Amino acid sequence: MNQASNFVEGVDLSFYIILGISVFFLVGITATMIWFVVRYRKSKSPKAKNIEGNNKLEILWTVIPTLLVLVMFYYGWTEYEPMRKVPKDAMVVKAHGQMWSWSFEYDDGRRSEELVVPLNKPVKLELISHDVLHSLYIPAFRIKEDLVPGKDNYMWFLPQKVGEYDIFCAEYCGERHSYMLSMVRVLTEQEYNTWYEEKLGKSDDPPGLQILKQNACLSCHSRDGTEIVGPTFKGIWGRNEVVITDGEEREITVDKDYILHSIYEPDADVVKGFNAGQMISYKNTISEEQIDQIIEYLKTLQ
Amino acid sequence: MSTATDSGYVNFFQAKKGLASWIFTLDHKRIGLLYFYSVLAFFLVGVLLGFLMRLELIAPGETIMKATQYNQVFTLHGVIMIFLFIIPVIPAIFGNFFLPIMIGTDDVAFPKLNLLSWWLYILGALFALSTLVVGEGPADTGWTFYAPYSVKTGTNVTLAVLAAFILGFSSILTGLNFIVTIHRLRFPGMKWFDMPLFMWGLYATSWIQLLATPVIGITLLMIIAERTFGIGLFDPAIGGDPILYQHLFWIYSHPAVYIMVLPAMGIVSEIIPTFTNRTIFGYKAIAISSLAIAFVGYFVWGHHMFTSGMSGPARIIFSLLTFLVAIPSAIKVFNWVATLYKGSIEIKPPLLYAMAFIFQFSIGGLTGLVNGALAANVHVHDTYFVVGHFHYVMFGGTGFAFFGAMHYWFPKIWGKMYNIKRANIAFAILFAGFNLLYFPMLIVGIMGMPRRYYDYLPEFTTMNVISTVGSWVLIIGLIMMLWNLINGYRKGKIAGNNPWGGVTLEWQTKSPPPLPNFLKKPELPEDGPYTFK
Asked: What pLDDT shows up at residue B6?
């Protein structure tokens, strides 16, 4: 039976070799220890024998563990090597991570919230973080690699079984780290092609909402009135808010200027009761036209 | 014990009275006890925080606290347990109390520096606790303070980092003091290989404290510089490099793991000969392996960064070096077990803790091999497997060695004996609770649950419930253990100078020892430190 990815076998082999040796030694050490303590307890063994050591034994239990750990190292290394060697024909997807959501960008710039890939075709993920460290982890595929802001990093895999698998963020990234989840969906080539042509980047959502989703806005700003990290979007248009500007409180009405300013310089006017330093500037990612679309959408959330 | 023959004997408790005679004392024994009370207090705070975390994780979703609070709780738990508990616990308490006695001298080389170390410890602790009450609350970065999150977050990272910086100096000064003491103040005629093995553990540890701690000190100052003045060191948004932070952090923090565990290995090496009534097997192998662990431990830090984007060859070299550390650790374990062979064994509480150390430290060490292998690491890195692994080493190893040391030296320090039977029962509950708490973490980690998770998917629930129940059992055992010791202190029988029949020098003096440690010159055993007749 096929494993979910090409790396499952190697990682599990490396793991089970160590596990086998470990269980052997743990049981051996523990059983010997307990046996000695029982066998040589004072009532059975009133007089101890002072044995200061034995050079042969010392050599033996230095050499044997050395050989065993070299074996463990070897399998860890050889099964790991292919993880850094990406096949030339791999399909490239950019994996964007930011607090606290994933977004997968395909070759023509269209994006998806889930990673959808065709069966038996190698996939290379270019890992891009927009803020802090994240780590893309797919337990079923036995792969994990960090997204380091300001640095290029990558990972690859060959999906071998149709199905849906969890994606976690494995590197702590702040308040909603444990909610930074997504899925890999492995489809047959035909299904994938259909998805790629008809579904990728297409959505029934209004354009403003699509922009909000792509930029991870909704992981902090709810649409239903609950407070997460930032103020809710529900009823935000035209709302009166008390904001902190340079340490002073002032009252404002949420209008186009305020929204634009808040997206480009999020720490300038922070709504009272929320923390500065949580949001990055979107000056280079969201255009003014897109902000107009966002506003059109926000107006509908009353 | 009759007091008539001991007329004129004043123990170090009676020598002086009053609060000032304690907090400004230069006596290494009193400083050891100052550390004992303060470290134990912080340990209990850390336990309470751990208990709250386990309670939150008993079910998916919000249980008793919000996500941010949870993140602050696990950060504070880590900071307290690492910097305020496990680093100082054995060297600063039992090292201070017993190092001079066990090498037959009257104090450490620099008593005033020793007192300063304790005051720095208290100052650092106050800084750590102040994060609770001022500004935006305790740091929410994890005890690793990884950049650039630690540069961006609004919580009290600066204060927490400053606390760790100050605590670092406390640790450096203790290390310096011990190195000089061991070099210069050994009892006349005591050669290096005549020292008890606890001394070797402390000696190896002290060098790491002295040489590695400054690196973390500077690194933490760099975080403060970046947060306060916007100097781009680690945050790529202002020209820094987050991987640089990880290197600098682990250059200290991996050797620090050996600061935490080497003294514990020393304790085990003391307890086993005493309760087997025979000499230790492979003295030199155990002594030298301490130095080997300390030395190789400097070169393995990169194994914390196998998935960080570090270069391929670096990953391979760090993996190989990591496996080499396993060898001296294995040598120690084999020698301890061999010491039980043909002994005359008395199964008393300290020995039970030493046996638990061997079992749990072995699990901790062997699971470490999984982390060290590149391929297996990719799967388990940053999962609960790692959390389980290091709690097996730190708590199952060092923590249990600490409990063992408390039971071993209790009659020497306070001159009284606790109830042995209750101590055994408390041990059994602690042992069961510990394994129930941490073993499921290894399993849920292999299943794929990442660490530092406030919420989790439903398939991880069973293991989390077992783990939380384990935390309750553990705490019951802990309370019973402490209660029994407190009772021993209050109304225990007089223990006598040498209740266990130990042969190292501390058993030749009175219990509790007099202020100058020895009333008459101790006799050095002829055939090494563990000469049993």
From this structure: 53
User: How many inter-chain contacts (A to B, CB under 8 Å) are there?
Assistant: 276
Domain regions of chain A by residue span: 8-46+54-84, 91-199, 207-299
Q: Which B-chain residues 144-183 have CB contacts (< 8 A) with chain A?
A: 146, 148-149, 152-154
Instruction: Give the contacts of B168 (CB within 8 A, at least 6 positions apart).
Output: B213, B214, B216, B217, B220
Report CB contact under 8 Å: A11, B154.
Answer: no
How distant is the alpha carbon of residue B469 from its chain centre? 25
Alpha carbon distances (Å) from A104 to A76, B72, B448, B479: 30, 31, 22, 51
CA distance B21 to B29: 12
* Domains along chain B with CATH numbers: 28-508 (1.20.210.10)
Cα–Cα distance, B256 to B210 (Å, whole number): 11
Give me the phi and psi of B57, to 5 degrees please.
-90, 10
β-bridge mates for residue A111, sequence order = A105
Q: CA angle, corner B13, sides to B98 and B518, nearest 5? A: 50
Mutate which of A175, A183, A270, A275 to disrupt the B interface (most B C-beta within 10 Å)?
A175
Contacts of residue B514, Cβ cutoff 8 Å, sequence gap at least 6: B9, B10, B11, B12, B15
Q: What is the pLDDT of residues A193-233, one digit of tens each?
A: 999 998 888 888 888 888 888 888 888 898 888 888 888 99
In chain B, % of residues over pLDDT 90: 85
| pLDDT tier at A1, thresholds 50, 70, 90 | low
Instruction: State mean pLDDT over A136-143.
Output: 96
Judged against a pLDDT cut of 60, whether residue A299 lies above it is answered with yes
Query: Is there a contact between B109 and B181 (Cβ–Cβ < 8 Å)?
Result: yes
Q: Which CATH class is domain A91-199?
A: mainly beta
Q: C-alpha A99: how far from its chain's center? A: 11
Report the CATH superfamily, name and number, of domain A207-299. Answer: Cytochrome c-like domain (1.10.760.10)
In whole angstroms, give the CA distance from residue B200 to residue B401. Answer: 16
Q: Which of B:239-278 have CB within 8 Å of A? A: 240-243, 276-278
DSSP three-state, residue A154: strand
Q: Two tokens at B282?
A: 């492979």
Is any Cβ of chain A less than 8 angstroms from the Cβ of B283? yes
Report the alpha-carbon distance of residue B331 to residue A58 in Å, rounded: 7
Side-chain half-sphere exposure of B40, counting CA atoms within 13 A: 15
Residue B357 and residue B396: Cα distance in Å, rounded? 6
Do B285 and A53 count as a contact with CB atoms less than 8 A apart?
A: yes
Mean pLDDT of A271-286: 82
